[in-house]
Amino acid sequence: MNEDESAGKTEERSGRRWWALAVVSAAQLLVVLDGTIVNISLPSAQQALGMSDASRQWAITAYALAFGGLLLIGGRVSGALGHRRTFTIGLVGFAAASALGGAAANPGMLFAARAMQGVFAAALAPAGLSLLTTHFTENRERGRAFGVFAAVGAAGSAVGLVAGGLLTQYASWRWCLYINVPIALLAVLGTALVAPDRPGRGGGRLDIGGALLSAAGFAAVVYAFNQAEPHGWGSARVLALLIGGLLLLAAFVAVELRAADPLLPMRILLHRARGGALISITLMFVAMFGFYLFMSYYTQTVLGYSPVEAGLTLIINAVAALVGATLIAGKLHGRVPPAALIVPGLLAAAAGMLLLTRLTAGSEHVLPLYLAPALILTGLGLGCVMPPTASLATANMPWQDIGAASAAYNASQQLGAALGTALLNTVAATATASYLSKTAHPAPTAATVHGYTTALAVAFAILLAAAAIAAYLTKTRTAPASAGREKEPETAPLA
Description:
It is found in: Cell membrane. 78% of the residues lie in helices and 0% in strands.
């Protein structure tokens, strides 16, 4: 091959890498967007379809259960069928489910469509992260790619709130689902320019026992967290679901340790740096999803913002996350150890939470003095944490294990989000009730703000603990090497 032909092939491969980033980022936006966009439109959908108050939560829960429960299976399917093929199937299925949900004529049709979205998202998310891992192996390009990917993920929740408010107010709640269809179909067209799957890398037989145990266990735990919000952590239903889910997951681990071709090889979890990345992102999402919930409540119920105004306020956080992921973490990837990004990111987010614990019902100039600085700090923190944790979670994996590692990373985020919403909402409700019972002639607004600040103090403590854990577990002697190699990062395995 002459020099011109070699240069042409290199340029073509480079173009395919950046095109892969574009389509994977579009898919990441879909997955994250649908975690929040329907929340804003739910009151309108409830009225239009005649949903009861007791059943309306299934529009949210059906998606979360299917997505969280099937992620590990989705990662395994991605490794067996090929990442690009699984990614394309996920996009087409997600578009079809979204169209079905937008056309829903009754609550059952909407709930089924949301569950279908979760099923295809469970294939789409790990396949997308796997495509990035296999396409970007050089440190500088890998840093930029994971920075953009993380920025889209970090900003997606805030964008979902804004888009949901605008579409519901000026179009219809149905467009909160229809909007996914053109985005997904454009991404499908883009996959034609993504490098094809590697031949001859079949994933072997599906671990049926592990698949059933993981799906049931994750679904039970996520549903327990969901039910803790309305029923409390001490209710028999929540305790039964939580204990049952944990027992199922323990059985899943036991099965995986003995399986010849496990759904989730335990070496993925038991590596020190990779385990640190998974713990860090889980605890980050615990704190951040509680934070998003309180920002939505506080701005609307205390400050009197409209849903659209509340969503636009969160854009500050999204822009800060974009800066943190692309201009800080993306540029420093490979130049500094992962811990040098993860630990300061967690501490920056913790500082943002701490600032908000100073709020009272009588605080003045709230937006410039409290909300904006906190939104900037938490956004920068999230933007600095997501790229290196995503990279660590998938670095140096054999090709056939990348899907499982990607699924474990996405599952960590889902569990963190579900736990954070339930746990911190329970803390806030308990603190509010305690304030009302112990204070003479309490003002309802003061009690509400006290509940929020107490929950944010717990989020602050969680982030400090995460920073301490990350400082120890993610410390590596060298930056992660190129993806796809059999070699592990130069860290000792967990004891």
